[in-house]
Amino acid sequence: EVYLNQNKLARKLKKIPGPKDVFIVGNGLEIIVSPVELFKLGRKYANKWKGIYRIWAYPFGAVNIYNPEDIEIVVSTMKHSEKSPIYKLLKPWLRDGLLLSSGTKWQQRRKILTPTFHFNILRQFYVTLEENSRRLVEKLSTTLGEPVNVTPLFSEYTLNSICETAMGTQLSEEISKSAKSYKEAIYKLGNYLVERFVRIYLYSDFLFNFSTLGKKQKKALETIHRFTEKVIHDRKSNFDEQKLIYTDDDDDEHLYVHTKKKKTAMLDLLISAEREGLIDDLGIKEEVDTFMFEGHDTTAVGLSFFLMLLANNKGAQDKIVTELNDIFGDSKRPVSVEDLPKMKYLECCIKESLRLYPPVHFISRTLSETVVLSNYTVPAGSLCHIHIYDLHRREDLFKDALKFDPDRFLPENCIGRHPYAYIPFSAGPRNCIGQKFAIMEMKCVVATVLRNYTLLPVTRPSDIEIIADIVMRNNGPINVKFERRIKKNV
Ligand code: HEM
Asked: Which PANTHER family match (predicted)?
């Protein structure tokens, strides 16, 4: 019956244009290419069919969309909020955390977690971000004049930052044995996920569990989960409810404000929610693991492409430095949280970088009802891949789309833009819960780096060769040179 149903789905989808297909395997054979070729294939299709095309491979049928109107239909409501089976690869790690869960469970969790990203909490997290930015600047002082692959360095910054804010664990300072192996296991797991992603035959759990890759992943997961459990356990034993004051804000049901000097971790807020019966032990683990993943790799990738773009766009870099000079003058004081809203041009540059290189370049849902997209009827049960990368590079939405032009994001230039034309953090109810955190993290570290160093180009935008992966990656290092900034005014 499943077979017939799926065939019916494929028959309905066939009315939508798409690449030539073959009996039963559909387009399944075409996509068995290298990750670089797979990414290129996606772009080739996006250029050929404007706004929508279908692909299918038994038992799946999918539409690929990159029209803002269609994207709005899919992501703006809870109707199609269920993630597609592609996300299954992350399930052994993140279980039913916020990224993967659905229905009532997702709704309840989102409600508990939203206040942890309230400005007052982010202010406390900021202290950690600022300290880590300065540590990174110190590290860079040993590399001056040499090409530096920025991704590992900035991943360390974002991973340390999320560990310290989400778990309250000082990874860089108390380099305890388990914290170190945890960090290593996260890197390994990332590689295993990519390896599995491009090997469709390993999507079957049965085959995967018997494979060498499956066994390696199991080992890494044991390390990761053991560490998460230990951190939660330790934090719980030292948890002092007195330190959290509950206040009612106009629009927040539970806003926790910290009173004493010790920093609050997101974990404290979850433990507190557990005491109120809002989440259980497993739930806390799922969320901590989810935030560790979503909260570090994406931002590190975003920062890597951004630094490359700034190194290659002296004009934009100089303008940011002028803005920083206006804010700081001759003072060497650290960047404070109050300075961030003044960095308006830097923010335009970050937005433009996330347009050209959106770290999460595609997202995917399962359509729960039949919908009409670009005048085609798409049956319920189809997968719907939303290509943020292709959307952001549409010439009709962004003139000279391949040009790095931060002015596009000046308020006057955003007037009239379709609200779903630019969605690096997705949109609608399942958008990125950490977007303010991410922008804060990016602003803080880039401002701190640019106050100290000039960025010089090594990797050029034309050298970039993107790999099809869960997050956007270059097929090779992203190199930038750092030189001490001597002249303050540009
Ligand atoms: C530049 C950095 C980031 C980008 C581009 C980004 C992008 C996204 C996107 C596109 C989604 C939607 C995913 C989907 O529909 O499948 C998402 C969801 C999510 N992001 Fe981010 N993200 C970033 C940083 C962060 C950070 C720093 C955190 C945590 C501190 C975070 C936590 C999450 C979580 C938990 C979800 C799932 C939300 C839900 O389904 O309710 N992200 N992110």
From this structure: CYTOCHROME P450 4C3-RELATED, CYTOCHROME P450 FAMILY 4
Let me know if residue 61 belongs to a domain: no
Distance 109 CA to ligand 1 centre (A): 15
In a domain, 365, yes or no: yes
- Within a domain: 54: no
Count of positions (residues) in the chain: 490
**Exposure string for 131-170, b = 16+ CB within 10 A, e = fewer:** bbbbbbbeebeeeeeeebbbbebbbbbbbbbbbbbbbbbb
Q: Which atom of ligand 1 is nearest to the CA of 302?
A: 1
Cα-to-centroid distance, 69 and ligand 1 (Å): 22
Kindly state the tokens that stand for 11: 């028959």
Residue 295 near ligand 1, beta carbon < 6 Å: yes
Question: What are the pLDDT digits (tens) for 242-294?
Answer: 555 444 444 433 333 433 445 567 788 788 889 889 899 999 999 999 998 88
> What φ, ψ does residue 257 adopt, rounded to 5°?
-120, 135
Q: How many domains does the chain have?
A: 1
Measuring from atom 9 of ligand 1, which residue has the nearest CA? Answer: 425
Dihedral angle, C-alpha 312, 314, 316, 318, nearest 10 °: 150
